[in-house]
Amino acid sequence: MAEAESIIGTPEVGDDAQPESAQPKGRRRIAALLIVAFLAYLLDLGSKMVVVAKLEHQPPIEVIGDLLRFEAVRNAGAAFGFGEAFTIIFTCIAATVIVVIVRLARKLYSLPWAIALGLLLGGALGNLTDRIFRSPGVFRGAVVDFIAPAHFAVFNLADSAIVCGGILIVLLSFKGLDPDGTVHKD
């Protein structure tokens, strides 16, 4: 039996023990998290650079009639422009989210969780970059928003990544899938 297990390998166990073969799998999940985060961050950063260079101080561009337009807006607050006096608190929250995701990545063995956390990480980094480097100053910078659907708040690609990552996390939690790859049926 011991010979068969050494040839076949031990099956993956869900709770605490991760077999030796899970180490490369865990690294692949971390790589997936970093790739998704990097792509989300680059798309957000690139789109904001274009918006600031071409759209700021210009009239909005109608993309789909009255339903969707691109309009450069600086947002010092949180979602929907709330809390403009608390920019430094939002900066600290974003930094904390990034630290938590990086720490959680050590126990990551689930590709869907890697994607969800990558979206959160990329979005948090995108908005944190604005808060640190944009005017009016370090840790008080206003986030560049530009996607303006009719009858809704103006947002950016970082916000979209954060919302999509959050929705995916909720769905994974309802399915009972944990970041370490275990599935529980409660």
Low-confidence region ranges: 1-17
Shape summary: globular
Cα distance, first to last residue?
A: 34 Å
**Amount of helix:** 40-55%
**Main sheet: strands, sense, barrel:** 3 strands, antiparallel
Percent of residues in β-strands: 5-15%
User: How many DSSP E strands?
Assistant: 3
Report the radius of gyration as a whole number of Å: 20 Å
Category by helix and strand content: mainly alpha
Mean pLDDT: 85
Task: Please describe what this structure looks like.
The chain is built from five helices and three strands. The protein has helices at residues 2-8, 22-55, 87-104, 111-133, 157-175, and strands at 61-64, 68-75, 143-149. Helix 3 packs antiparallel against helix 4.
Short description:
With about 190 residues, the chain is mostly helical. It has five helices and three strands, in the order ααββααβα. Strand 1 (about 60-65) and strand 2 (about 70-75) form a beta hairpin.
Keywords summarizing the entry:
10% strand, 54% helix, mainly alpha, 186 residues
Question: In terms of topology, how is this protein built?
Answer:
Layout (H helix, E strand, L loop, with lengths): L1 H7 L13 H34 L5 E4 L3 E8 L11 H18 L6 H23 L9 E7 L7 H19 L11
Antiparallel strand pairs: 1-2, 2-3
Helix pairs in contact: 2-4, 3-4, 4-5
